[in-house]
């Protein structure tokens, strides 16, 4: 099979390598496509703790495709079924997933891309956010994750204030239900606008979806007394400092919403499948750019640079 190998910072090689064989309890997936995650950008840029080269396919963890082979003991899937999986080497023509970390895609999703991992992640973050009707929710950073959370929060009856750098992102947030949008440029101006919009009360819930220091600082400022700060951004480029004095004074709850329990991860994935198949969420407008495996480097660069109306890149296989 062909698989992408991260040779070093900014360097991808497409290698010919043996197809993996499923072990007991595993399935092999012929990958139809795989989303590109913002968490791929730190290995792509090069961090001091990274080692190279990576595993074949190694950055890809948002796969969907077709069951290609069954390992010993797997009886709940059949070869040829279309599935999404939580697997970890999917920038390749084939990948291996545990059968209990794989979900069958219903006929309603036939022909539609389905990067299950980020969709499931959004549903788990939403559940941890405990958003209720009548609340004001600020979402800091409107990319794929922020847009999905905007739709889920709005559907729950919350009033969403979307905060993001790019005008295209703010327009997207409006499409997904945001009541108010604020350009993410001036720290104190944003705080004053949110204060005004909430009658000096600020927000019951604030979700930070960027993964950088300033958005985290800003998000903490926007939480009202007794509210909840939800850290959904993936902070993997070094330590963070937080205003514990402010957090403590306001008595806020702080939730790190990245789930590591496999059962919880699968719960989010099941909820995502049901929501998209049932028409309660339409993520199609978020899949703005598609690439071949040979163009994975360009997909990573565009995920970093966000040209035009970029939201999310998909690597697809014919």
UniProtKB/TrEMBL annotation:
* SMART domains tied to this protein: PKS_ER
> What cofactor does its activity depend on?
Zn(2+)
Q: Thylakoid as a keyword? A: no
The protein's GO terms of the molecular function aspect are:
oxidoreductase activity, acting on the CH-OH group of donors, NAD or NADP as acceptor; zinc ion binding
Where's the Enoyl reductase (ER) domain? 8-315
Q: Which Pfam families match?
A: ADH_N, ADH_zinc_N
Q: Which organism is it from?
A: Novosphingobium silvae
Q: Recite the UniProt keywords alphabetically.
A: Metal-binding, Oxidoreductase, Zinc
Protein name (Swiss-Prot/TrEMBL): Zinc-binding dehydrogenase
């Amino acid at each position: 099979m062909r698989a992408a190998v991260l040779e070093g910072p900014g360097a991808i090689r497409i290698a010919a390598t043996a197809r993996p064989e499923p072990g007991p309890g595993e399935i092999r997936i012929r990958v139809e496509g795989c989303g590109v995650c913002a968490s791929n950008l730190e290995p792509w840029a090069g961090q001091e703790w990274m080692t190279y080269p990576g595993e074949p396919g190694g950055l890809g963890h948002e796969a969907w495709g077709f069951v290609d082979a069954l390992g010993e003991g797997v009886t709940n899937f059949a070869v040829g079924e279309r599935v999404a999986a939580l697997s970890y080497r999917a920038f390749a023509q084939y990948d291996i997933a545990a059968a209990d970390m794989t979900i069958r895609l219903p006929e309603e999703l036939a022909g539609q891309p389905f990067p299950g991992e980020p969709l499931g992640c959004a549903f788990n973050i939403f559940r941890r956010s405990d958003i209720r009707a009548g609340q004001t929710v600020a979402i800091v950073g409107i990319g794929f994750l922020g847009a999905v959370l905007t739709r889920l929060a709005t559907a729950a009856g919350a009033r969403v204030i979307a905060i993001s750098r790019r005008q295209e992102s703010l327009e997207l947030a409006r499409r997904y239900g945001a009541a108010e949008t604020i350009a993410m440029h001036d720290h104190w101006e944003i705080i004053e606008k949110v204060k005004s919009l909430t009658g000096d009360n600020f927000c019951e819930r604030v979700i930070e979806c960027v993964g950088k220091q300033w958005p985290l600082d800003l998000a903490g400022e926007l939480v009202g007394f007794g509210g909840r700060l939800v850290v959904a951004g993936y902070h993997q480029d070094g330590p963070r400092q937080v205003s514990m004095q402010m957090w403590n004074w306001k008595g806020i709850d702080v939730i790190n919403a990245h789930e590591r329990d496999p059962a919880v991860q699968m719960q989010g994935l099941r909820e995502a499948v049901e929501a998209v198949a049932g028409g309660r969420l339409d993520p199609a407008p978020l899949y703005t750019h598609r690439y071949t495996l040979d163009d994975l480097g360009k997909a990573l660069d565009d995920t970093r640079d966000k040209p035009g109306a970029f939201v999310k890149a998909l690597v697809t296989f014919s």
